[in-house]
Write a structure and sequence with these properties.
Strand content: under 5%
Number of helices: 9
Order of helices and strands: HHHHHHHHH
Number of strands: 0
Shape: elongated
CATH superfamily of the largest domain: Tetracycline Repressor, domain 2
Distance between the termini: 49 Å
CATH topology of the largest domain: Tetracycline Repressor, domain 2
CATH architecture of the largest domain: Orthogonal Bundle
Helix content: over 70%
Number of domains: 2
Largest sheet: none
CATH class of the largest domain: Mainly Alpha
Radius of gyration: 18 Å
Oligomer: single chain
């Protein structure tokens, strides 16, 4: 195993332990020392992986954004923005069943803890910029124009709606999440597909 892979595995273990602790005790009641102990590391080691306890919850959003951007780059230019985003969001939401409990804990924190939700908003703005850039290129217009800006905000809001809906399904698995993403893009496609 490479050192980068070892680091990723350790970070994921720390993250899973932290999210479980947040679920049991509540986000505000858990300290960084608690998180380090739950992950079997020291405080300094914890900070090597996560700058703050918020980053334990939100770091995955950054990874998913990188995956979204990379996937959008692979979608051929002839695809309309709805089809391109559908492909990209289906790809970044392809979770194995083993990953679902951690994902559900993360999303529940984003939905219910005001501090986490507010910081997630900053991450979601980066998602909107990525979607607007891709849509603008596909529509051959500037990213700051109204159409790509509205489209980007609607897409990200739709994905947040997907997560809220999915969390309300007690046994929501990865397949159900992907089905909801597809349904959301079916609805979006009726309003945004085709030429401008």
């Amino acid at each position: 195993m490479t050192s980068a892979t070892t680091r990723t595995v350790r970070a994921r273990r720390l993250e899973a332990a932290a999210l479980e602790l947040f679920a049991v005790r509540g986000f505000d009641a858990v300290t960084v020392d608690d998180l380090a102990a739950a992950g079997g590391v020291g405080r300094r080691t914890f900070f090597r992986y996560f700058p703050t306890k918020l980053d334990v919850v939100l770091g995955e959003l950054d990874d998913a954004l990188a995956g979204l951007v990379a996937t959008l780059r692979t979608v051929p230019p002839g695809f309309d923005p709805v089809s391109a985003c559908r492909a990209a969001f289906l790809q970044v939401n392809a979770y194995a069943d083993d990953d679902v409990p951690v994902l559900r804990r993360r999303l529940r924190l984003i939905e219910t803890v005001p501090e986490v939700s507010a910081r997630a908003g900053v991450r979601y703005a980066a998602w909107e910029r990525a979607v607007a850039l891709d849509a603008a290129a596909r529509w051959d217009c500037a990213p700051g124009e109204l159409r790509p800006q509205v489209f980007a905000r609607v897409v990200v809001a739709a994905m947040r709606g997907v997560f809220t809906t999915w969390l309300d399904v007690p046994a929501g698995d990865g397949a159900r999440l992907r089905a909801l993403v597809g349904e959301a893009f079916d609805d979006l496609g009726r309003g945004f597909a085709g030429p401008g």
